[in-house]
Structures
1.
Amino acid sequence: MATTSQPGELDRDHRGEADGPREAEAPRNDKLQLLSGSDRTVLTLMVAVPGVLVIGLVWIPALISVLLSFTKWNGIGPVSDIQWIGLQNYTDLVTLYLPFVPAVTNNLLWLAVFFLIATPLGIFMATLLDREVRGTRLYQSALYLPVVLSLALIGFIWQLIYSRDQGLLNAMLGLDGSNRIDWLGNADINIYAVLVAASWRHVGYIMLLYLAGLKGIDPALREAAAMDGAGEVRTFFSVVLPAMRPINVVVLVITVIEGLRAFDIVYVINKGTNGLELLSTLVVSNVIGEASRVGFGSAIATILLIISLVFIVIYMISIYREDAPE
């Protein structure tokens, strides 16, 4: 016999069915609790304090430098002494300031050496160490050691190596007396000597970044390439390198920034003179040096800022494209 449900039972059944989803959603709603007052305070401080520091110590001084680049001021007198001269600083920089062209040339040479020699060497070292060769931890530590040292300290270390009278390099080459080479005093070769020292640090930096990226590569990609008959070199350039596109962009930006902000190592050697002129050293010599030409030095700093922003924007666009939903 078919059983008939009483109206009360039907009401209870409908209520049960209606209450079921609400009970299932209850745990989900519990997770959406509002933050407490102390949590909001901590979160606000975590966002506000770094933001204020970045704006106050980076962006505001940068904007002030851009404005000062259109003025003439010695940095000592009152603000009322500032004279607005438009693009005169930039015109003088290109046409009259003799150290500008050597500085630009040295910065371009710095970038070229980092891009074509130091960065590929760091990638090569990372590829070798990723194979888990014997003593890989020792090699990683040895290559990474220069990275923890500042460029100023590296400059002091390599001064001992390049010293004309008591340097290690001349002693190893067996040069003595008049045959000794003044590696840092000769304006024709000192920039190359300094680039070797700077690359010593940069190679370890790139090695660390690339090694971390290689550890995150799915082994299945290499296995599939090996099954298709691809050798190690072809696998790296056709499979591994494209898969490491985010790391490649980071390495590109870091290489450019490291090349443009080079300052410490040449300044401790000879204050960026006699063949070691860089844009960064020209900024310092004009702003806080004997010249005291704040507006002129700010024009050089603005050029550096514009060049850096180009690569930073490229990096940010790449990051947004990676995070954007398809």
2.
Amino acid sequence: MAPVIFASSEGSGVRPRLNVVAAAILLTAAVAAALFWRATNDVVLPATIVAAGLVLMQAPRVAQQWERAVVLRLGRFVGLRGPGLFWVVPFVDRVTAWIDQRTVTTSFAAEQTLTSDTVPVNVDAVLFWMVHDVKRAALEVQDYAQAVSWAAQTALRDIIGRTTLTELLRGREHIEAELQRLIDERSNPWGVTVSSVEMRDVVIPGALQDAMSREAQAAREKQARIILGQAELEIAHSFQEAARSYQDNPTALHLRAMNMLYEGLKEKGALMLIPSSAVESMGMGGMLGAAAMRQASLAGGREAFAKPE
């Protein structure tokens, strides 16, 4: 994907820029020529004034705050001009390029590129760069913006070819830093510095996406079972510690049994199954009988209250 180019060359057919100062010079020459023609009825002098105005209007140039103009004098570099108003010698000096020094964003991509584990991927990225040396950008490379774009694409393909799919998906920050370093090394001789590189998207084949989804689901299920087993182990240790405490303190065990019996029987229609060994060892027979008699007396009282006389 070709980036937007912010350098224009007057020698390649681009029209010179018209500015206010040049327009004022031409207008002044035209007014002066008209006044002389009315005063003298001579055509030669007004025509000379207009011709001089056309020549002089090419001298003033205006560069924006973020621009630098590259000036050649008879084909030889004489310096950079701007920002603001500057003057050149007509027909001798030539502004060959206007270099934009603002940060430029360039989108680039690597399509159907194989990773080190032979997986075809499509990667989209964005490059943030700027021109820090206008002279080198204008003189060392023909089209610095296009060169930066191609350097970014080749560097991205190079990194993808040396990286596995897992590293590409999980280690984006490391890959972006490495990509920035490679592009910066290639573009620094052109007077261009890379601010940052950000990967926007990594597209993998649909069949591989399904396989990775199943693998991730299996890994989550495995982790859930491991967590459940650890929870069971912790519960068993807790029961073991509780059993040791109750073994040394039978009174606490009886109180716990009574609490469990109370919590179970206070619910309406509750049914509790208690091992006979627990009834014998903890003396719960009397408690269970009393609880049963209480339940029966309550049920009899409700029936007597409901029976009509």
3.
Amino acid sequence: MPIDQITDAIRRVLNEGSRAGLITVAQSARLAVGGKMLVKANRETVGDLGDTALNRIAVEQASAFLTAREDAKMLVVSEFAPELPELANTSLLFERIETEPHLVIAGAGHVGASLARLAALIGYRVTLIDDRAEFVTRELFSATSEANIELISASDWAGAIKEAIGNGHGVAVAIVTRGHKQDEECLRAASSASPDYIGMIGSKRRTNIVLDKLREEGFDETGLKRVRAPIGLDIGAVSPEEVALAILAEIVAERRGGLGGSLSSWRRAALP
């Protein structure tokens, strides 16, 4: 298949805000090196690795690869398809194809601003929204690393949030506004748009008040249970910058499939 067809398929995946796995023959004595097949999230394929049986099995492997949330992985066919001994030493490169992760932040106070700067620094596309125009001026975000932060002064929280979320694929929403009213409005809009992650700042009492209000309005309980409230990992954060770090750590863990625990816990558990 011409490479242009693979390129066009990749472009469509990115434009749709979806995801796919690109498989490339990296080394093989039997197949043409460089052969490619794109496996979309719905298992639709574009391209050909050069072997019908391998194509079929590779679709399953690509689906598992996308679930694992790695960016790239090299696999030898013998590791996942021992029933194909003639291709045992063939190496395949699996690559994740998806748009850059997008963080929508509702509230540009100290925590929201710190979160926007930190997320932009690690490569997130960031949209920072506030209903106070003076909190989202470019002068406040003038560093080189902050140049791509999208700043939105919104008279309508719901409309701005829904537009920023789009189809929700690859999108995380952090609600860090200044009060119950704004929290409710933002959570209502975010829940309706179904992003990959929603978190809301506040105490247990404050967040429960907002969630109970949405329950009374008939919002789906399953969706509300997905809301991370209070938002973030428990790292003992105090300053706005530390709170931002705790929030972003949870967002990254959710995206990458991390557990959010200590990497050294196994060692400490083994100590007498």
